[in-house]
Amino acid sequence: MTVGHHMDDVDSSTSLSPFPKQQQQNSSLSTTQFDSPMAADPESSGGPPPLRRRAPRCVLLLRHPPHFTLIDRPLPDGFRFLKPWESPLPFDDFLASDDVRSAEAILTSQGVPVTADMLRRLPAVRLVLTTSAGLNHIDLAECRRRGVAVAGAGEVYSEEVADLAIGLLIDVLRKVSAGDRYVRRGSWSSEGEFALGSKLGGKRAGVVGLGRIGLEVAKRLEAFGCTVSYNSRKKKPYVLYPFYSDVRELATNCDVLVICCGLNEQTHHMINREVLLALGKEGVIVNIGRGSIIDEKEMVQLLVQGELGGAGLDVFENEPKVPEELLALDNVVLSPHTAVFTTESLSELCDLVVGNLEAFFSDKPLLSPVLDE
Amino acid sequence: MTSHPQNDGAPPPLDRRPPPPVLLLRHPTQFSVLDRPLPDTFRFLKPWKSPLPLGDFLSSADARAAEAILTSGMTPVTAEMLRRLPGVRLVVTTSAGLEHIDVAECRRRGIAVANAGDAYSEDVADLAVGLLIDVLRKVSASDRYGRRGSWSGEGEFALGSKLGGKRVGIVGLGRTGLKVAKRLEAFGCAVSYNSRKAKPYVSYPFHSNVCELATNCDALVICCGLNEETHHMITREVLLALGKEGVVVNIGRGSIIDEKEMVQLLVQGELGGAGLDVFENEPNVPEELLALDNVVLSPHRAVFTPESLSDLCDLVIRNLEAFFSNKPLLSPVLDE
């Protein structure tokens, strides 16, 4: 995405406006559009001029996004990133500084919260951008109240996350990692045949949360001959999979649960002891959502007691801490929250972050806005 | 009273004759693992219960009465054996593979051959894809990492590689290969294949030369059987054509790949990774592989789920019943 075209248009007085819509809607302001630094914008009292005509826009960077460093990509030019960790001031004082109070956007990552208090202290902020698909670390209600736009990772990760969900499921059912451990410690030669796995085909799989990721997971499960059903806030109108309004009922009727929903007040500890017991002794749970969707303490206990068949987990309640009891279990596969981390998705994500920032500060629509459902 | 292969009830009388004698070269593990008895509608002749060495046993009147042979993947049915058992009209193997059976000699003698048919193909395909995901997304490696207590922050584990968009070459597009292909499509992979001959009703691009396939792919999944042509078919040249980022998955037979060359290329970083369920010298696994993080090792488990083992036991019994009731075999090995 480039912003170069704006520069050409702005200096001419032809009708080739960078803001054609505004020209139609605010014809009385059309002559002022190229004169004043604040062009007409139906959405606010005065939209900002294109990026290149003024000082770089200030973006509060709560944490340097590993997504950029992991693929050796520098942060984009044209923005001034304010970095709390580079300041000698404690975070509170940093937020109160003049510099930071001029921030118009916040760029954050998974697990780094944007609170109501922070938004209150930064009245110039009009955009919260996160590198994650998950939004549980952002006070969305407060953003809505303040008219602050929110943008996330959009669909960039959905396939990758779905791929890992299936990878974890196959691993647990067919004991791939456990088999690999068996071979590496020399047991194949000394102890003989390894344990049986369990077939995927014919398994009843319950997808919890049938959003973008859930749908990609369902599609893959079908290719393996699994029967898919789901639980979601509301039934999805154009989806043929059987719907269960109650997640415990879903668990009762399934052999496998794949947690694909976001974390919010309703989904916190939604997968409780009752749900896991309903899944059963042979039941398998895969979580690529957020750790706290599952009551982790209960799950660990059931796994240790043999009341739950197995688990494939990419997320945990208290990352990077993994409950110690899990480290000793052979029927659990642990992944250090890597579901989104492939070279390909990071590259797309970085493009998306830059694209969203450029779009927002050029008064163009966000590429991956978070909309009310 | 003729039998119907689909009946779930007790086996019907087989032509009202005494139970046909079946030479059982080795007790099939699939039955013992599931604690399933062999059916008593057949008289199983068990060489290991005789004090005679196998050679002499085969000459005994008992053995010479055998009308069928039931074998597993480990025990060969040779031309010599068939010559000494002129009563045999059927060879049933519990394996999908046929490299231990002299199929040519069977054909010459008009002996029917039945194998595991479709009983395993889904499980094997599932594991093949599981191994591919594991290598590309480093599932086992990251599990090791987590268990070592090494995880201390976001994004610090090595990056994986996306499945979608990968060009995956299937070597051997039989039952298993086709199932692998179908699964890979759901992940957004672009599938092409190499086979003895192009398959007429298949739309995946065909490469007549496995090296050419490797050149045009990011990953290879070996799904073919082992025979004279496929032995060490995956050479150093093929693996180099696959490239530094290339991944090979083998759920066929260890000797289809030149294992020594593959190990060397993996160690030298000339090959991106490997997911292996089979090895040239099982259960021996080349030591160098044990130290590599980009390799996933599976102790020849592709077929071992209770579901497929149970299906296999059913299939063996039904093939025997069908044959001795003059009905078509359920999983005959046909000329291609």
Could you describe the 3D structure shown?
The complex is a heterodimer of chains A (373) and B (336). Chain A contains 16 helices and eleven strands. Chain A has 373 residues and is α/β, with parallel strands linked by helices. With 336 residues, chain B is an alpha/beta fold. Chain B has two domains: 116 residues, Rossmann fold, CATH 3.40.50.720; 165 residues, 3-Layer(aba) Sandwich (Rossmann fold), CATH 3.40.50.720. In chain B, helix 6 packs across helix 8. The longest helix of chain B has 19 residues. The two termini of chain B are 34 Å apart. The N terminus of chain B is likely disordered. Chains A and B meet through helix 8, helix 9, helix 11 and helix 16 of A and helix 6, helix 7, helix 8 and helix 13 of B.
Concise synopsis of the structure shown:
The complex is a heterodimer of chains A (373) and B (336). Chain A is of the alpha/beta class and 373 residues long. Chain A has helices spanning 4-10, 20-25, 66-69, 91-96, 98-101, 116-121, 140-146, 158-174, 176-184, 187-191, 212-223, 247-252, 273-279, 296-305, 324-327, 343-361, and strands spanning 57-61, 79-82, 105-108, 127-130, 149-151, 204-208, 227-231, 256-259, 284-287, 310-313, 332-334.
